[in-house]
Amino acid sequence: MIIGVPKEIKDNEYRVAMTPGGARQLTEAGHQVWVETGAGEGSGFSDAQYEAAGAKIVPTNADAWSAQMVVKVKEPQPSEYEFLRPDLVLFTYLHLAAEERLTREMMARGPTGIAYETVELPNGHLPLLTPMSEVAGRMAIQVGAHYLEKMSGGRGKLLGGVPGVRPADVVIIGGGVVGTNAAQVALGMGAHVIIIDINLDRLRYLNEVMGGRLTTLSSNPLNIAEAVRRADLLVGAVLIKGAKAPKLVTREMIGTMAPGSVVIDVAVDQGGCIETTHPTTHSNPIFLVNDVIHYCVANMPGAVPRTSTYALSNATLPYMVKLANMGAEAAIQSDPALAKGVNTYQGKVTYPAVAAAFDLEYTPLETLLEGESEA
Question: With bands split at pLDDT 50, 70 and 90, how would you rate the model's confidence at 216?
């Protein structure tokens, strides 16, 4: 199989979907890897490193997209829609439930769209979303601490305080991978941390592993409202697999926060869980609502591409190898986890939450695969 690796063109996106080590593994298995020139530079990988690994360097975005399977980090941008076609396998983060235009383009142009974020193991674990959630959760506290500084427009509070001075209050909505990693870093910096989640078993677990300095609260509007009112740093970390995030924090709640407080909505790439948020970019990352700083960059891990690219490639490469070795249809049929990653196939939406987001028809993937077998 020919695998294409285009250079990412989203605003300040420096990650790349494949390391030279990944290219070597695929080429040694008999496949061709076409890497767009400069695709790895943002992550510290030169064209020469890819060539030494057996990859072919191609001069343009269109050349990389002409491969049989294209692997990316972020969803196709509008200028790339023309490259979508029925015989293409696209393996990347898609986040279609927050991207109606892209969803309709995928339906109209017919590629097989396999989304990293919905590949799901039998135990419910999302192995390809986890590494970037870990990065984003840890970054949320790092970024939040920066924007709490006075010269950045914040309240002028040190996250951990000092002896005799109360630390900052960090409130995290969601106790999954993002929330857990955010809490670990915030606690490590000495902040007072509250995690709010609907799953009491998850809260018990977090309380056990993080000790008495963590406060856990059951998710309900009253608890959220009171916690948000006191928060110096509010982190939105809610995930519903493949679906739009619910708006758990209202505009009214944000209005109760002190001026110079900071909101970081990590869920923004799935629509956000805070009513006042909308996607921003690394080149223009913040905006104010009621004098509260909002940071809502939809590709936060792109700011630390060296770490992020290695972390992502560690998780995605085994699936890339399987798709290349077996072909997409056979790989999907042999691996239920990979099958759950298929969001579009033959112009149909094959993931229920994406269909529900835009009131589109949902077609079970197995129905389409059975039809091919009968044909």
Answer: very high
Q: Closest by alpha carbon to 71, among 20, 107, 108, 35?
A: 35
pTM of the model: 0.88
Tell me what the mean pLDDT of segment 126-139 comes to: 95
Percentages helix, strand, coil for the chain (3-state, rounded to 5) are 45, 20, 40
Active-site annotation holder among 95, 169, 192, 265: 95
- Whether 188 and 241 map to the same domain: the answer is yes
In a domain, 173, yes or no: yes
Query: Of 169, 192, 269, 294, which residue is the catalytic one?
Result: 269
Burial class, 224, CB count within 10 angstroms (exposed 0-12 / middle 13-18 / buried 19+): buried
Alpha-carbon distance of 214 to 208, in angstroms, equals 10
Quote the number of domains for the chain: 2
Q: Which domain holds residue 311?
A: 2-118+305-374
**Which among 298, 313, 332 is the end of a domain?**
298
- Provide the token pair at 91: 């393996």
Does the annotation mark 95 as catalytic?
A: yes
Per-residue model confidence (pLDDT) at position 297: 95
Q: Is 269 a catalytic residue?
A: yes
Decide if 125 is inside a domain: no
Token pair of 219, please? 């998710």
Residues 6+ apart with CB under 8 A from 280: 268, 286, 287, 294, 295, 296, 297, 298
Return d(Cα 6, Cα 112) in angstroms, integer: 17
